Amino acid sequence: MTITLPWQGTGNYTVEGRLRRTERHLAEVRADNAWLLAVKAATDDYFTRLVADRDDVYDAYKQMAKRAADSEIVASCAQSELETVTADRERLETEVRALRAQIANLTAVTVPAWHRDIDPGDHPTEPTGIDVRDLRTRFATGPVVSLHYSPQAVSPTHVPALAALDTDTVALPVLADQLAQGVS
Are 151 and 158 in contact (CB under 8 A)? Predict the structure, then answer.
């Protein structure tokens, strides 16, 4: 006859069951440990990259600060050179103005026109030569003579001898309406 004790169970509560449970738990812990080690390696790698990026940013900042300082030096040198060149330009402009005034004074005509010596081969202007005033000024004193009655008229018909010599002239018919339309 077999006696079964109620406090002794079968299955998981035996030593073998405890051993299986412990081995399963140990396998889960090992898997979790492997996963955590992989995560730690990834985070270490990421952190290393972040530190390298931070170092690159600091290096870039240092380079930009150095370039800014160099640019500041170049700008101040350019500004001082610009001021020097501007002062030289202003000095030269005043010198040019003075020289132009001196040349104008040296080449100025100080004798009035009616007292100047006139070369006979030269064609002088007023008062002894060609009248170069504009028409309003020239003819303000009196009426203008029409060229039709002037001896310098365009047509040579006022000279009878020239009019008699012109025998080959033929009158051409001109249609006024065709000329107005632009058709010849």
Answer: yes
DSSP character at residue 171 = P
- Residue 161 exposure: Cα atoms within 13 Å on the Cβ side: 0
Contact in structure between 118 and 128 (CB atoms under 8 Å): yes
Distance from the Cα of residue 61 to its chain's centroid: 32
Buried b / exposed e along 80-113 (16+ C-beta atoms within 10 A): eeeeeeeeeeeeeeeeeeeeeeeeeeeeeeeeee
| pLDDT tens digits along 5-33 | 555 555 556 778 788 889 999 999 999 99
The DSSP code sequence of 14-83 is: SHHHHHHHHHHHHHHHHHHHHHHHHHHHHHHHHHHHHHHHHHHHHHHHHHHHHHHHHHHHHHHHHHHHHH
Q: What is the pTM assigned to this prediction?
A: 0.35
pLDDT digits (tens, 9 = 90+) for 46-84: 999 999 999 999 999 999 999 999 999 999 999 999 999
Helices (H), 108-175: 135-138, 160-165
Query: How far, rounded to the nearest angstrom, does the alpha carbon of residue 73 sit from its chain's CA centroid?
Result: 27
User: 130 - beta bridge partners?
Assistant: 125
Residue with more model confidence, 89 or 129: 89
